[in-house]
Amino acid sequence: SAAEKGGYDYFMLKEIAEQPKAVADTLLGRIDASGSLTLDEVRIPVSVLREVDKVVIVACGTAYHAGMIAKLAIEHWTRIPCETELASEFRYRDPILDQRTLVVAISQSGETMDTLMALRHAREQGAKVLAICNTNGSTIPRESDAVLYTHAGPEVAVASTKAFLTQLVACYLVALYLGQVRGTKWGDEIEAVIRELSDIAAAVDTVLETMEPVRELARSLADKNTVLFLGRHVGYPVALEGALKLKELAYMHAEGFAAGELKHGPIALIEKDLPVVVVVPSPRGRSVLHDKIVSNIQEIRARGARTIVIAEEGDEAVVPYADHLIRIPVTPTLLQPLVATVPLQVFACELATARGNEVDQPRNLAKSVTVE
Ligand code: AGP
């Protein structure tokens, strides 16, 4: 009913708007007054976490994209090797797992059969399993050694939005916590990022307030057949997520690529007026990556692409090559997906509406996939 949708036309719009609160709720009570993480609810003893020598993340769809970002955060802050794998592929390849492997299973619903089968396989091999889940008491957390709940509240729309942002927050918490309990050389950075996390809900809110031009742009592209998405580092999973949202909702051909791969094939797809969304890393910190992506934008624009550039506030280098510029707040490099994903959600939702599609219940899809 209209009341359930809180005055919005679709649950998806409501859930997009709820993201600042979902993010804040997921952080609530997990950072103490001294700026340290307290994840006592993660019932895996610190002594076990200190012995972990490999992290394996398993998930599907949007949760898998969160896992790809988690890998970068975990490896950077903890120096523990981490791999992220599609849950549906995992157990069929005889993965190497033992008592020192921490498996992280990410699932909004907690009922996804592929993810459940992957974690069962991991536990049979002696690995410890930590679930990141949005649904209290669902099967995946019940069958795991420990759970870190995301506090997004119920997500009704089939296309995941607020659950994704809170999965990211939970992944950062796990990465930072592992770094904290193991004491890495990134101690100072870990402390600084924990502080920045406290402001991130406000940054998401800022993005939401500036979405009207994105909606306008989406409507203007309603008769296109294809949209490409490019990103690097944490921007690559964001590109994949933007493409997945567009497939699910707008039923358009949408592909995400790692921008560095362009020259290895995908650049052949670029033609006049093709919309290409580019997620630009911060010019601070990893500036080499930033420069490379600016060259990619130049290359595709020279071949006629219509460039839709998502770039940090104050990044002037992209301005000459952006047909459409979407600004996002400045964040630490690894946290950028929390703000960069939001315009892509709004974009897909508006494009779907403009094409007359059912936003909350896309064709052929179910909210939770309980079959393999
Ligand atoms: C997201 O928009 C999708 N509907 C889908 O990819 C989803 O994320 C995936 O099926 C995993 O679901 P889960 O998080 O409930 O396990």
UniProtKB/TrEMBL annotation:
Main location: cytoplasm
EC number: 2.6.1.16
Keywords, in A-Z order: Aminotransferase, Cytoplasm, Glutamine amidotransferase, Repeat, Transferase
Record-annotated membrane-spanning stretches: none
Record: active site: K367 (for fru-6p isomerization activity)
Class of the enzyme per the UniProt entry, highest EC level: transferase
Reactions that this protein is recorded to catalyse: D-fructose 6-phosphate + L-glutamine = D-glucosamine 6-phosphate + L-glutamate
Domain of life: Bacteria
GO terms for MF: transaminase activity
Subcellular location(s) of the protein: Cytoplasm
Domain annotation SIS: ranges: 45-184, 217-362
Self-association state and partner proteins as the record states: Homodimer.
Role, per record: Catalyzes the first step in hexosamine metabolism, converting fructose-6P into glucosamine-6P using glutamine as a nitrogen source.
Protein name: Glutamine--fructose-6-phosphate aminotransferase [isomerizing]
Gene encoding the protein: glmS_2
